[in-house]
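YM 10:42: Phage holin family protein sequence, as discussed on the call
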Amino acid sequence: MTTSDIDGQSLGELVAAATGNVSKLVRSEIELAKIELKAEAIKAAIGSVMFIVAGLLGTMIVILWSIALAYGLVALGVWTWAAFLLVGALYLLTAAGCIWFGYRKMKKLSPPKRTIQTMQDNAKLFKRPSKS
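YM 10:58: structure's back
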């Protein structure tokens, strides 16, 4: 819009034009955000799939190494059943240690005190009677 266009318009027409421009701007920004978020979501999905594949491969590696460890114990003269039992016991102890460690960490968790306090303060503000 040029200066000469503005001079001939009423205030209502100018407000309507400004509102229309703001509306177009907001729609354009939303469309841009959708496009950017879609691209980022695709990247995140590909990354997640790679983590899942790595986790599955890691699980297979642990299984194969466990079998190798058991047969290594057999090669050292341990009975086959005892070697596999020892490897299983090793995993049982590892799992128990992880449970113990996780339990201790979870026990130390506390509620978000500052957030609770600010929420209570906000609730008090809304409950105050208005001074009219």
